[in-house]
Amino acid sequence: MKIAFIGLGNMGLGMASNLARHHSVRALDISPDAIARAVEAGCEAATDSAHAVEGADVVVTMLPAGAHVRMVYADLFQHAAPGTLMIDCSTIDVASARDVISEATELGFAMIDAPVSGGVAGAAAGSLTFMCGGEADAFERAQPLLDIMGANVFHAGPAGNGQVAKICNNMLLGIHMIGTCEAFNLAAKLGLDAQTFFDISSTASGQNWSMTSYCPAPGPVPGAPSNRDYQPGFAAAMMLKDLRLAKEAATTARAATPLGAQAESLYALMEAAGEGGLDFSGVMKLINGSL
Length: 291
Description:
By secondary structure, the chain is of the alpha/beta class. About 50% of the residues lie in helices and about 15% in strands. Strand 2 (about 25-30), helix 2 and strand 3 form a beta-alpha-beta unit.
């Protein structure tokens, strides 16, 4: 199978590399260095979008924001062959995802939105979680490729529902992380060490993923970013992006998300302090006053 892969950032490079172990992948990015790394991983370099999609059965994109997705696909629609399967793995606003997929369908392409969870390590390891929206037949065509890049693949329903699942999940994750940081900070202030609190709460009703797998307090979870000075991982700037998408979607849907809005404001403070490059669990430094 011939695949065009567009967008070779930290996530896209690992995903394209995994696909190149099984299929022919022609890769494109605005960064020549990113293209060079993809070639080292077994991809062929594309010179432009027309070259990238020439003869391609599938197009996979991993782009920063909705505006980029709209712009890139407006160009791709002019060059790709009718019937080409298009998989957008970017995390973007729901409206952009639905608009682009609607246009793709009208032009005779099959397309799904398939944002991911799992971070850079998951992209490299092929263990991502994909949350997909779109027609069932397009999803079925995409699933064998998603299975190469991920360990968990879900069809969330119609176009845009992958983005809905992603932003709702990450809003919840941001809220959980802040609450977990507050609990560990309060325990420390009251004289209870992190390991003891972890041993108790991780087996009690306060247990959650942010505690047991990604503990923001140094010590209890050796592999967590808190034990390497909060180097990401999943950067706070990326969490802020997702929380802003959730806030925008909540406004459009007229849904109350007061904790999501508060989480967004705290991660915005991290960004304002110049610490958006820390792991999102580094919000602990904001909460304990060490930022």
